[in-house]
Design goal:
Elements: H1 11-20, E1 25-29, H2 30-43, E2 51-55, H3 62-70, E3 74-77, H4 80-88, E4 96-99, H5 105-114, E5 117-120, H6 124-132, E6 138-142, H7 167-179, E7 184-188, H8 198-219, E8 225-227, H9 245-261, E9 269-272, H10 276-279, E10 283-294, E11 298-302, H11 311-315, E12 321-324, E13 353-357, E14 366-372, E15 382-385, E16 406-410, E17 416-420, H12 425-429, H13 434-440, H14 448-462
Helix pairs in contact: 2-9, 4-5, 7-8, 8-9
Length: about 475
């Protein structure tokens, strides 16, 4: 299966890691991350001031952000937590982009305090911000092209998307900001996600460059910056090719010359907010086979679950899975040679395929459905789930009281360091008050009055 980088571990190394580190865990390869950033930067080297504002939501870990900072990235934030994470890791002022929606004023204030580039999602934010905290020095708007573009399964149809402003709203918003004294402006859109087609990514640039020309002609505003969004994809599926990011950069350059330079609007800074392209192929979810079950299908149970990687259950997304043999004895697990039930007569699918499943009380807790595997999994073997470096750990949750796993970084020198500890039950229960609940149970609650009344009525009838 094509990758941005070769799988960085030998089978023996994976077995060693799974012996030393409690499974499940996420591990990221530093070299893959750095090379992805360098390739993207090289593709856009024609554009002075180009910066990729890494989408923090993809992999919100300070160690990852430190690596990206060293490679010249900024950050793209959509919440106050991501703003604080950027601040803590030393990102300054316009290295930070704040693109949010349904945003409370405290988050706008934090972005303004940091001097971040504020990208407004709705026309109403202009008057709201002007009244509550004053508009920032530079204002950008997020554009929703509606029927002018089609989305995809991950980002949805723009007409049905909650994000961004119509063309008419953009023009009104820029005019309002202009009248209120704003001098610096930007423009943004995000209309594709995990896109592997060069022409679609270039078309986003064409759309925004033409819109920048329209705004200039109607309002006299010269865009300082156009943010093309993210959307550069990775090949999750076998047979998919790695996108030629150099061709993406060359295509954007061509339409920049055709539109921006031809209309006298250069220089105009072009930026992106790629997350998945940078860290997706660098991350792996390492889990262990803990159970096999044969009924109408052949199930392979692993100790990871949807709480560790939501994408397959949420989007029906494909993640490649490698099974690595580990034939050692594993205390606490069934024997790998224990006989399995004969389900030959009941099997829905006769081919040798497997459903790889977690332990949540949800039937969509599945990493793979009817998946052919190169190696038949047995209890104790290791299942490595590929391309889990973006929107993996960050989308984790605690349903069924499942603690979220640890994260590790595979360094350039081959060492492995912990960059986030695993949660435990103490973390799960840390916001609860057991003592208060036990004391509360004796005499309160909304039904206590009714219970007392009924008891009194029974007592009176007996009298």
């Amino acid at each position: 299966m094509p990758k941005l980088a070769d799988f960085p571990f030998s089978d023996a190394k994976v077995v060693e890691l799974a012996k030393e580190l409690p499974t499940p865990f996420h591990i990221y390869d530093e070299r893959t991350i750095r090379e992805a950033v360098r390739g993207l930067n090289a593709s856009m080297a024609w554009c002075p001031g180009f910066r990729n504002h890494f989408a923090v939501k993809a992999t919100p870990n300070p160690y990852i952000l430190q690596v990206l900072k060293e490679e010249g990235c900024g950050t793209d934030c959509s919440s106050i937590a991501e703003l604080v994470l950027s601040e803590e890791m030393g990102f300054k002022t316009e290295e930070i982009m704040f693109t949010s929606n349904n945003t409370p004023i405290k988050e706008f204030k934090k972005a303004k305090q940091l001097g971040a580039l504020v990208n407004l999602d709705d026309l109403s934010h202009v008057d709201f911000l002007h009244k509550e905290d004053g508009l920032p020095e530079m204002v950008s708007f997020r554009f929703n092209p509606g029927p002018g573009r089609t989305g995809n399964k991950l980002i949805g149809d723009p007409k049905a998307a909650k994000f961004g402003c119509t063309t008419a709203q953009l023009l009104e918003g820029y005019k309002k900001c202009q009248d209120l004294g704003v001098k610096r402006f930007g423009l943004h859109a995000m209309v594709v996600s995990n896109c592997l087609k060069v022409d679609e990514l270039v078309e986003t640039a064409r759309m925004l460059f033409l819109l920048a020309v329209q705004i200039h002609e109607k309002l006299g505003i010269k865009m300082e910056m156009v943010n093309l969004g993210g959307g550069i994809g990775i090949p999750y599926l076998p047979g998919q090719d790695v996108i030629d990011v150099a061709s993406v950069g060359a295509g954007i350059h061509a339409v920049y010359k055709e539109i921006i330079e031809a209309k006298g609007l250069a220089p105009m800074k072009v930026v992106m907010e790629c997350g998945r392209y940078i860290t997706g192929p660098a991350g792996f979810l390492v889990s262990r086979v803990v159970h096999r079950k044969r009924i109408y299908k052949n199930y392979v149970g692993v100790d990871a679950c949807m709480a560790n990687l939501m994408r397959p259950g949420m989007y029906d997304a494909y993640h490649h899975i490698t099974i690595i043999k580990d034939e050692r004895d594993h205390p606490g697990l069934p024997s790998r040679t224990a006989p399995a039930a004969d389900n030959t007569a009941d099997l829905i699918t006769k081919e040798p395929v497997f459903d790889i499943v977690g332990g949540l009380c949800e039937n969509n807790d599945k990493f793979a459905i009817d998946r052919p595997l190169d190696v038949e999994p047995f209890v104790g073997d290791i299942a490595v789930i590929h391309d889990a470096g973006a929107h993996g750990h960050s989308m984790g949750f605690q349903y069924n009281g499942k603690p979220r796993s640890a994260e590790y970084l595979h360094r350039l020198d081959g060492s492995v360091i912990e960059i986030r500890r695993a949660e435990d039950l103490g973390d799960i229960f840390s916001t609860l008050d057991f003592d208060g609940a036990r004391a509360f149970g004796g005499g309160g609650g909304p039904l206590s009055w009714l219970r007392r009344t009924l008891k009194a009525a029974v007592w009176c009838n007996k009298r």
